[in-house]
Amino acid sequence: LSSWAPAARNLAKLQKEVLERMSTVDPGPDGLKPMAPIEADCEDHESLVRMCARAKCVLTCAGPYFSYGEGVVRACIEARTHYVDITGEVGWVESMMRKYGAEAEARGVLLVSCSGYDSVPPDLATFLAAKALEGEGEVLQRFEAFVGSSGGAMPTGTIETGCEALASAKRRALGAATLGMLGGEEGDEAGGVAGDAAATFVPEAERENLRRNLL
Fold first, then answer.
1. 84 exposure class (CB count in 10 Å sphere: 0-12, 13-18, 19+)
2. Is the pTM of this model over 0.70?
């Protein structure tokens, strides 16, 4: 790594909240001070592509990813820039791999998810345990990790991810309870809302009745 630059949609806030604090800290002999920040907005795809075109790899830390992540994935593939995130949203990761995995592979772009807190401590602990057992002539067969809190607050993105997970579970439950007439997830065979092909056999009056009783 020879250089890096932060990016945000609000450069003034980035400067005040992050860069001013970093400017007082010596990165040390192995560290790098950031280059000029890049303005990029998840709601402005062209700005994302311009950002990605300036880098070999983009590390995105803005969640929840189901709201803000897909545009960065698309932009990285378009610019042939490797992509790394810190999400723990497994369902979203799976959907991105299904949607963009083949195209990313064809264009030589790496899509690496779950590279932060959700995976690094267990991965490192597993590796160290395996190496220690290997030194004793043993092989690690199974590893379980337990994580607890030690103060601090939950990030806003994590809270929003949890709320979306609950809402998704409710939609799926409604889809199952009404045989797909209400609720479900986009792409589900049994999913659907009023107006979908899977629900057109239900009279409009009955669909409204179901909504009043179940939603």
1. middle
2. no
